[in-house]
């Protein structure tokens, strides 16, 4: 007797208790991997205001070895700007948090198959651990930025590796992964905001979070149930049988038949994609990558370019606290929408792109004209922004997994992950001059 899952109608065998346990172990395992993979990345963005507040303190006082992330009780009162600005935009931290990820996502899909999955996961765990240690013990902004870069390397390598990994399991794990990455946003932003609000120093807070890289290793090596042919400690040569398949009517391969015939070789018969085939796949992926990039450009233009400037002096939260909770409520919206794949699918991704651009325009005007009356209205807009961004991410990868053929799928899932990172990096480059303009007013 079979039943269908709640995501895509793939059959799930209920013939044995062991198979049901394995299925749910894999869904939960990918949820935890998504949570752990994005956790350090989110925490570094939540700590961005504190990282840069340290620089301001060092410019005006004599730092001691213990001066790490001094609490910003009211923002920068030493400048004459009406926006209570840090000397440097939080977009500087965003760039450190996304550029290494972008470089990895652009280059790695062409050679990452030469490294076994087990090795990749250990590297992710090591770099995430290093990021927390470097930032927590930092005595200078440069050292903090290096820690942020390590977090970016871990998140970028992990995302493309785990998205590729989903092709060895039932397609339902894509929903688990997406929901877990959304959960990372809520957990990372909320824990950082709540623990620092409760009185813990940012240093102690980051040291507590070292449990997360360890949880990633446990989730991967002890929770997932791998197929017998899975290439755990040897290179993936692309010829192994995938765990699931679908009917030809459901597939719309990104490599067209005539191009595939033209590019046939001994390699491609073995299941290995040629460089020419990979470029053809990338061209076919543009219909997914471009809308995803636009959504994330507008989203992070808001988060790292505008939210720092939306400060309400009469509110009961300080400037730093308002910024942290903006990040937290945004991540709540992301988590809800990234978990929505189990009940709702959105194929027209351009609609999400257009709506996110409207959000960016609205908040840009609100920063310049200062017509929003209070922080709760900004919180509501930011939650909505998170809903749009999370929906764009999870639906993009769901439809890529559904519409690509078996040989293409592992590469396509990894290569398409460049979309969100490209949009985020572009937003960071745009947000820095915008920050300087507003702060000069």
From TrEMBL:
Keyword Coiled coil applies: no
Membrane-spanning segments: 23-44, 91-111, 117-137, 144-168, 174-192, 204-226, 280-302, 349-371, 377-399, 411-432
Alphabetical keyword list: Lysosome, Membrane, Transmembrane, Transmembrane helix, Transport
InterPro entries named among the record's database cross-references: Battenin_disease_Cln3, Battenin_disease_Cln3_subgr, MFS_trans_sf
Signal peptide per UniProt: none
Gene3D superfamilies reported in the protein's UniProt record: MFS general substrate transporter like domains
Listed PANTHER family: BATTENIN
Entry similarity comment: Belongs to the battenin family.
Name assigned to this protein: Battenin
Source species of the chain: Megalops atlanticus (Tarpon)
């Amino acid at each position: 007797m079979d039943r269908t899952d709640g995501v895509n109608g793939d059959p799930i065998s209920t013939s044995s208790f062991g198979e049901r346990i394995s299925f749910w172990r894999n869904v939960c395992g990918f949820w935890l991997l998504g949570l752990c993979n994005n956790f350090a990345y989110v925490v570094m963005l939540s700590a961005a205001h504190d990282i840069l507040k340290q620089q301001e303190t060092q410019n005006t006082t004599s730092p001691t070895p213990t001066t790490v992330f001094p609490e910003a009780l009211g923002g920068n009162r030493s400048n004459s700007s009406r926006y209570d600005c840090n000397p440097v935009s939080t977009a500087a931290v965003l760039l450190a948090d996304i550029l290494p990820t972008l470089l990895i996502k652009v280059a790695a899909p062409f050679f990452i198959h030469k490294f076994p999955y087990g090795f990749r996961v250990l590297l992710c765990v090591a770099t995430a651990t290093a990021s927390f240690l470097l930032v927590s013990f930092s005595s200078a902004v440069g050292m903090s930025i290096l820690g942020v870069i390590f977090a970016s390397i871990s998140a970028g390598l992990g995302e493309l590796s785990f998205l590729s990994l989903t092709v060895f399991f039932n397609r339902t794990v894509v929903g688990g992964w997406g929901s877990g990455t959304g959960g990372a946003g809520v957990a990372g932003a909320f824990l950082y905001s709540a623990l620092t609000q409760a009185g813990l120093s940012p240093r102690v807070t980051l040291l507590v979070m070292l449990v997360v890289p360890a949880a990633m290793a446990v989730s991967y090596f002890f929770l997932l149930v791998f197929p017998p042919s899975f290439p755990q400690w040897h290179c993936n040569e692309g010829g192994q049988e995938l765990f699931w398949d679908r009917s030809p009517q459901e597939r719309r391969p990104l490599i067209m038949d005539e191009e595939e015939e033209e590019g046939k070789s001994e390699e491609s018969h073995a299941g290995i994609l040629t460089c020419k085939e990979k470029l053809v796949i990338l061209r076919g992926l543009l219909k997914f990558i471009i809308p995803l990039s636009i959504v994330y450009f507008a989203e992070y233009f808001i988060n790292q370019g505008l939210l720092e400037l939306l400060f309400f002096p009469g509110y009961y939260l300080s400037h730093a606290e308002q910024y942290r909770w903006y990040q937290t409520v945004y991540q709540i919206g992301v988590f809800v929408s990234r978990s929505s794949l189990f009940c709702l699918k959105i194929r027209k991704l351009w609609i999400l792109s257009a709506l996110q651009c409207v959000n960016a325009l609205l908040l840009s005007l609100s920063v310049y004209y200062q017509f929003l009356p209070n922080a709760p209205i900004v919180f509501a807009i930011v939650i909505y922004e998170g809903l749009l961004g999370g929906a764009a991410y999870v639906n993009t990868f769901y439809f890529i997994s559904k519409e690509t053929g078996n040989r293409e799928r592992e590469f396509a899932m990894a290569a398409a992950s460049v979309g969100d990172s490209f949009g985020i990096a572009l937003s960071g480059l745009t947000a820095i001059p915008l920050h300087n303009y507003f702060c000069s007013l």
